[in-house]
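Human
Can I borrow your eye for a moment on a structure tokenisation matter? Give me a protein, with the fold worked out from its sequence. Write it directly below this note and I will take it from there.

Assistant
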Amino acid sequence: MEKTLLDIIIGRRRTHSVPTMAVCHPCNEPTLRAVVEAARRRIVDPLLIGPAAQLKNLAAEIDVDVSNLPVIDTRSIAESAARAVQLCREGEADALMKGSLHTDELMREVVRKRSGLRTRRRMSHVYIVQAPNPPHVLLITDAGLNIESYLDEKVDIVQNAIDLARILGIGDPRVALLSAVETVHSNIASTVDAAALCKMAERGQIEHGVLDGPLAIDNVLSQEAARIKGIDSQVAGRADILVAPDLEAGNIVAKQLILLTGADAAGVVLGASVPIAVPSRAESPSGRLAACAVAGLYPRGTEPCHEEVQS
């Protein structure tokens, strides 16, 4: 039987310890069901942060048992976000998960200079997708956090994805730098950035990945398309990581792939001092569990710094 995305992620755990996950404002059915199931399967030990009475009522309404899960009572979404981030910062939790709040409401607390979870890395979003044809794990970035990224930020975005790919067992992952064309044009910024990123990888400024770009999406997904266009590439048709030129393109590519092929997917934010699961409202139950499972394999980052390293 083919392994699910959840099976693949759990299979990469480095230790048998169960990480504690701060679940921020889990006041909707998909999140609460997912964390109860994650606790039952010993994927994570959830620590629920939200209005206790509302959580109790929701659990009764959807018939799930939360009596054995710790709850930190809060009065608002803003308080839930601040408290969840504080617990991660102080080492009381190993990972963070978004519940029934918008991503920007949680990330506002995550990126605070003095009380957030910043490191020297730029934070970025990665979709981990179990692509069906051919069957393999594919990472797509940035599809949910950085609206428009410049070259220095793209270095961290690429490195975050490479590091995660290696933890998932993909040694020296092939990284496709997406654009609309395969040649460098000075009036298409993504092609210039792609060329610079490839050279930076050659000089060791990006490590442990095989980069190529600019590449259009047809060349990335099809070796035949690359052959017809005369593109000689180690990455074309065999990419492990797709790096989008901006958030809009990344989000469209990821969600098209997920919805049109039925691929399973988990969304995470990397580059903070803990991994952050950020399931979309339409994410499948198995995708939510897979996002939880990332906490069990991704190591805690460096201590959050107080320097103004991110805008």
Observations:
- Residues 302-311 have pLDDT under 50 and may be disordered.
- The radius of gyration is 19 Å.
- DSSP finds eleven helices and eleven strands in the chain.
